[in-house]
Write a structure and sequence with these properties.
By secondary structure, the protein is mainly alpha-helical. The chain folds into 2 domains: 79 residues; 208 residues, MetI-like fold. The chain contains 13 helices and no strands. The protein starts with a helix and ends in a 10-residue tail after the last helix.
Length: 305
């Protein structure tokens, strides 16, 4: 992509050639290509200019709006079946008319199932990481078992948890705990080992206790690893809660709604639920990333050029 942008004939010439070729064969495709190359040129100018730092948030916004616009154009221009792919305008209209239902599903799946399981699973993993750090036996025995359990497919474990914990949000939280526990555990254990041997020797030279060494050296060093695990688990928590609802749920929940509306071929409602889940996941990830930036400002990864 970068090579095309810096070619001698340039991006405008490439876009003009492709648009002209498409106009001879399919004017609808030419219109779509014109929008795509136009947005590409604007983003390239914003990214490479002197104002790139001030307008850095505008680039992903333009890119996202362009994708939605191209989606809408493709559906409308080519008259794609509503069952195959509804237009973004239809999805937005359904979101506006089904706000109450979407909010109830959001509360059941995200606030109860995913968030509760996320907090319990990540908290338990952090506590277990401290125990593993102190015990060579747990390091050699628990982590291999954890890798095995983490590899188990959710479609196989979710029905078991639903039978054990019932059809309420508790079974969804149990699935989420099982999904996030070991990825978080591995990241925490690796983080606690990240401090250098010379730094640990210095703490011992100062006669620091294990707790003092943990709080003043090892935990600060482990923070980037811990937040990496937290960010990974944000998406795993949402996936686990939604998929678990396919195997048993009360008459509310995002996974339940997707399954029911798929049977009715109400694809606009299905995509509305997917959009809400995507927005919730992005917000969840963004909150964790913002907390990471505020607490690990000293880390080289957080420094801006």
């Amino acid at each position: 992509m970068r090579a095309l942008g810096h070619a001698p004939w340039g991006l405008p010439a490439l876009g003009a050639v492709l648009i002209a070729w498409a106009a001879l064969n399919d004017t609808r495709l030419a219109l779509i290509l014109a929008v795509w190359f136009g947005a590409w040129a604007v983003n390239a100018w914003l990214s490479n200019g002197a104002q790139a730092h001030r307008l850095r948030l505008l680039v992903p916004v333009i890119f996202g709006v362009t994708l939605v616009a191209l989606w809408e154009m493709a559906v409308q221009l080519y008259d794609i079946s509503f069952v195959i792919l509804p237009a973004p305008s239809a999805i937005w209209a359904r979101m506006m008319t089904e706000t109450v239902t979407l909010w109830a599903d959001f509360q059941q799946t995200i606030l109860k199932g995913a968030l509760a399981g996320y907090l319990m699973g990540c908290g338990a993993a952090f506590a277990m990481a401290l125990a593993v750090d102190r015990s060579p036996f747990l390091q050699r025995g628990l982590l291999p078992v954890g890798n095995f359990i983490a590899a188990l497919p959710i479609v196989g474990t979710a029905p078991i948890f639903v039978m054990w914990f019932g059809f309420g949000w508790q079974s969804k939280s149990a699935v989420v705990v099982a999904m996030v526990f070991f990825p978080m555990l591995v990241n925490c254990v690796q983080g606690l080992k990240a401090s250098e041997a010379m730094q640990r020797d210095l703490m011992r030279t100062y006669a620091a206790s294990y707790g003092q060494s943990l709080v003043k050296l090892r935990l600060p060093t482990a923070l980037p690893f811990i937040f990496n695990g937290l960010k990974i688990c944000t998406t795993l928590a949402l996936i686990g809660a939604i998929v678990a609802e396919f195997f048993g749920s009360p008459t509310v929940g995002m996974g339940f709604r997707i399954k029911i509306e798929m049977g009715r071929l109400a694809m606009d409602m299905v995509w509305a639920e997917i959009a809400v889940a995507a927005l919730a996941g992005s917000l969840f990830f963004g909150i964790v990333a913002l907390i990471e930036r505020k607490t690990t400002f000293w880390h080289p990864a957080q420094r801006r050029g």
